[in-house]
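Structure tokens please, single chain.
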Amino acid sequence: MDGPVPPAFGKLRQLEVLDLGGNFFSGPLPSLLAQLASTLQTLDLTGYRFEGPIPSVVGKLTSLRYLAKLEKLLVLNLRASLFTGSIPSSLGQLKSLQRLYLSGSPKLTGSIPSSFGELKGLQRLDLSSISELTGSIPERLGDLQNLEYLDLSGTKLSGSIPPSLGKLASLETLKISGTNVTGRYPNKHGNLKKLKNFRSGAGLTGQISSSLGRLSKLVMLDISSNSFSGSIPESLGLLSNLSELWASASQLSGRIPDGFAQGLKNLKRLQLSMNNLTGLLANLSSLQVIRLDNNTSFDAISGLKTLQGLSTISAAASSKGQYLPGRISNLKHLFLQSNKIQGKLPDSFGKTLPKLRYLELCDNFLTGVPKDLSNMGKGMLYHLGLNYNNLSFQALEGLTTLPQVPSRAGLARSQWPKMPKMSSAMLQC
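Here you go.
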């Protein structure tokens, strides 16, 4: 069936289930459906070709327990809709709502209705990627004591994070990255005892609150792209469940406290690029990936040699001439470009990296490589970057001992020594 929904449905006063799924209705929902407010519990709009404002009649169906547009859920699911105009405040009358999804709706405008604070049973609220969503985060969202998931990322929300969000005792995920939210980080967020995933890349200022150390359930913490002052608080070392910490481009400075790494026994990924940090990170026993690029004062990268679980080290423009001596048996990706590394790489270099697949050493002051690199990569090396160094042809003879790997590219000059096959080689002297 197609065309408008017949208004006669509104006369069926005992109707509890209205399934319009699988049809191709279009146009507005008839206002007569509001007469079913006391009986209608299920409304399925799968396949409905919505355009224009969100129908205000939906907000009047106060007995509605189940509404589906794109897929059948136990929630109001209007993801990626073409609705226009503001989010109607009447949605706050749907007291039974547990999940509300409006994400990815490019034509919605206006602000978050404060009436959402009336949705006391709401467990998940996703307003992400509504590119024209403006205004501030309503204080009344702090009244949603059952809220477990709140995603406001990718919007034009502004103002500051309201302290009331610190009352959300059930909250497990909070995302406000990619917004215009600014101001100082609220200390009260240390009360979010169940929080596992926190992403706050925004214009936050001030010091990182030590209260974050009280979020003992935290698994993922992303505080990138802020304007913090000072260093990383030692209290973050109390986050024993933390698996990922992203804090790049946040204007952090100073020495990383000694206690920071001691308690992070489960940390697998650490991103500290584009700051001005120094310090030792040798106690992160579970670490697999670390990115320290563009920390121009970093002075202790050699301490990473004790972390045998590392598979990726990226420390461009950070390590002050250090090349990570010592065996790191699981290392697959090593980025040390623009680090002022001088002289010849030591003969032990290739022997200490048996699983290496990608090595970037461009823009240094290297004058030579080891004569024997046969152990480096064990046949898996596919990229070696040595361009913009002080290398001569004679200094490159050790490259002829590299194990064979699948393909060959980037070696057009006939003058090069006979080389093994490589998928990527950058050897400009």
